Amino acid sequence: MTARMDFLKENIRELKEQNLFIELPVLSTEQKNRVILNGKEVLMMCSNNYLGFANHPRLREAAKAAIDCWGYGAGAVRQIAGTMEVHIRLEEMLAEYKRTEASLVFVAGIAANRGTIQALMGEEDAIISDELNHGSIIDGVRLTKSKRMVYPHLDMDGLKKALLETKDTRRRLIVTDGVFSMDGDIAPLDRIVELAEEHDAMVMVDDAHGDGVLGKDGRGIVDHFGLEGRVDIDMGTLSKAFGSLGGYIAGRRELREYLINAARSFIFTTAHPPCVTAATMEALRMVQDEPEHLRRLWDNTRYFKKAMIDMGFDIGRSQTPITPVMAGESGTAMQLSRELFNEGLFAKPIVFPLVAKDKARIRIIVIAQHTREDLDEAIAIFERVGNRMKLI
Ligand SMILES: *Cc1c(COP(=O)(O)O)cnc(C)c1O
Questions:
Q1: CB of 108 sitting under 6 A from ligand 1
Q2: Tens-place pLDDT, residues 292-349
Q3: Looking at the domain that runs over 20-50+291-388, which CATH code has it been given?
């Protein structure tokens, strides 16, 4: 390494001083309810593998069959020579599942948010965004020259004010997470859509944590609120509940056609390996023909949350499987995570700047694969550690 890169040492030292330096935890097993992580067997309690699809035999088999049929790589970007029939089939299937005219798959959810917002919004426009929206939405907004308005979390008066203040701009886009990733609360999408219709603004919802989790057969937040046909841009990810990889947008046919031509994060990147696409299609079939995974996810969520509340933990305002366990200062959250790990439970601390300085927490996501014994063991660990740390 040349001396020109020495500034990195200084940057890292600063991060360490502020307790913000992160190293990667490493799995030695597949992603499932119990894993070996950093060499220790632990209960996995913070993956996004809601339905347990990441290592499911049906997805494995679908991926293997696709490799035999299509080979491994796609070999080109989508616009040039990388689009295979499987890619088109998945997009048709997603549109049907989300009940929209069309859909378009991006390499990841972050790419879908960045590319879509960048392609649709110009200098004469305004983007109105909830203050707790995901970083990939914020990235998308930063890629535009649009006017930016941020309203307080879930505050519909704040949203209305922003709509009134921007009434003279060419086009407005309201963008919100469906399920907020750090707190597990749900955006009041019905109210947002009403306000948007009243003020003639477009609505984009990021359903990353609602896909496969909310609505009938896991169709997501639009189905949950019965808003079919009234949300302009339904964005989601294939990497969480669906256990695969990729992001997508669903909406009008012209939205798909335009994004193929204008979304830079779609244009300048190689298509998914066809085995990834085939496994995702299998996940969409599974969520519809094996409803027991979704049922178990919610049964497990209710069981675990009730036990946490009964023990006296503060689990915030969650309405979904995302369960924050509030610790207060970041040092306390980090200690909580360490002590849980020593007892055999893995959940990463979430600290500033991801959340406010005094709202540090660990974030638990219970999954369908957790057995009753897993959950009882987790609850017993929380009770021991909570008492020891005087959190309950
Ligand atoms: C995870 C997540 C994304 C990004 O999805 P990837 O497919 O992992 O890139 C986007 N938005 C939200 C709200 C998320 O939680």
A1: yes
A2: 999 999 999 999 999 999 999 999 999 999 999 999 998 999 999 999 999 999 999 9
A3: 3.90.1150.10
The answer to whether the CB of 177 is under 6 A from ligand 1 is yes
Give the residue extent of every domain in the chain. 20-50+291-388, 57-289
* CATH placement of domain 57-289: 3.40.640.10
- Evaluate if pTM is beyond 0.90: yes
**What Cα–Cα distance (Å) separates residue 257 from each residue in 79, 93, 143, 228, 271?**
11, 17, 21, 21, 17
Residues of the chain with pLDDT under 70: none
> Is residue 320 in contact with ligand 1, taking CB distance under 6 Å?
no
- Determine the atom of ligand 1 nearest the C-alpha atom of 239: 7
If we measure between CA atoms, which residue out of 254, 278, 263 comes closest to residue 71?
A: 278
User: What span, in angstroms and rounded, lies between the C-alpha atoms of 248 and 116?
Assistant: 10
